[in-house]
Structures are given as structure tokens and as C-alpha cells.
Amino acid sequence: MFRGSLNWVPDNPSSGRRHIVMNPVKAGWSVLIAVGVICVFMALGFALGKGVSGNNSLSADQEYLTLQGELIQLNTKVENVQSSLEQVAQREELAFMAAADMNIDFSNMIDQFSDENTGTDIFQYIDDIELRVLLCERIAYAEQIAYDSLAVLLVDKANELKHTPSIWPVNGIFVSDFGARVDPFTGAVRYHKGIDISANTGTSILAPADGTVIFCGWSGGWGLNLVVKHSETISTRYAHCSAIDVAVGQSVQRGDLVARVGSTGRSVGPHVHYEVLRNGIQIDPEDFIIRAGPTEAAF
Fold first, then answer.
1. Domain with CATH 2.70.70.10 in the chain
2. What CATH number belongs to 173-287?
3. pTM exceeds cut of 0.85
4. What is the signed CA dihedral for 279, 285, 290, 291, rounded to 10 degrees?
């Protein structure tokens, strides 16, 4: 085995550089120190890499938990919206039943979801939330169509009510109803085709509903009378008037002055003979009257 020393002599001994003598012992220690330094650096690098990896893992867990919490909050909001839409649908059923006697069932639009497990499959949980949103969109769209239909229905109903004779045409005393009665002139039983309301001569006769005047004039036993057409099927007649305050073709609204109480024609005293006609046939006016008096209409 080679044994000896390694001498390093500078070119210029007077330059002040050191003269190094390397023997086997010194060389061994130098190698050992170098290996130790390399090992220390490798250990530091490994520890640093592991720490970064651990931090990344911790950060991923925190992000997952944060995402999970946000999804739970989002799902709660969607459930609240769905619940509100279901309540609207239920109330709308009642509205349709009240307005048009239509029993519309919205339950087929409301799906039931089972409890979700957000810890095992968060992607499935996201899919469930998306399904809930689609369900809410479907219910909302159906509600929009239903409300449009209900709005049209209510507008038509309001228009129908405006043209329905619902009040007495005059403030007075009810003296004779519709149907068979004793004729005050002959004493025989005759069919009375309207109702009689007694009032002082000149008392205002008001339109009981919106309509158009289609007749004004004298007609036999009715004396001075007028007819107001309220719809395609319903009209009203006011007989024994002392004066007419409207003209044929004039539009009137509920509460408008149309005539004055009198005792013209076949009459025993001042009153208004009031008829309601459906397709030209007299029917009982009390089937339409909701309030007694021209200023007490229910609608």
C-alpha cells in the first residue's frame, strides 16, 4: 500500500502562500468531513421537501373542508327556494279552485330527495344540488305559466263581475217578489216576472252593473221603461219610470243614473218594476242581488 505524504509547494516561496503537507490521516479526515457535509445537506433537503409536502396536504384538506361547507350552505339555500316554490304551488292550487273550480295538481313537479352524504362523494352531492336547481327552475317556469293563465282568468272574472247586476237599482222598500202573486187590479193569481221596489216619485234609479242601453220608451203595462244589456246573455229592465236619463247606445257603469222612479203604465203607486233577463227570458233578480241598495255592492 502506498504510504507517504503529499506536499504542495508554492512556485514562489516568498509570496506568503502556505506550504501544505497532506498525509494519509489528514486526507481521511478531509474525506470524512466532506461526506458529513454532503449528508447534512441531503438531510436538510429531505426534511424541507417533506415539510412542503405536508403543508400542501394540509392546505388541500383545508380547501376541501371549506368547499364542503360552502356546498352545504348552497344546498340549504336551494332547499329554502324549493320549499318556497312548493308553498306557492300549493296556494296557487287553492287560487285556481276558488277562481275557476279547477283542481290543478302541482305535486308531479315536486321531487323528493333523500338525505345526501357530503363526506363520501362530494361530486355526487354537487350533482344533487344541480338537480335541485333544475327542479326549482321547472317549478318556477310552471308557476309563471300558471300565473299568466290565472291572471287572464281573473281579468275575465273581474270583467264578468262588473257586468253582473248585483245590487238593487234604487233605495226603497221591497214590496213584491218574483213568481206567482195576486194581481192588484184583478185579484187573480198571475206570474210576476220581476221584483217591485217602492220609492218616492223622482227617486234615482241606478245601473246595477256595467252595460249598454238598448231600449228607452213606452211599452204597454210597463209604461216608460228602459233596458240595459250587460253581457251577451244578461240584460235588465226598469219599468214605470217617470223620466229616462240616458239614451239608446249609451254605455253605463254600475251606480250611474239611468232613470227616475214613477208610476207610469199599469201601476198602483210609485215604484220600479225591476227585471233580470237571460237570453230574453225573465229570471229571479234575487239570484243576482248581493246587497240591498245601489251603494252597497259587494264588488
1. 173-287
2. 2.70.70.10
3. no
4. 130
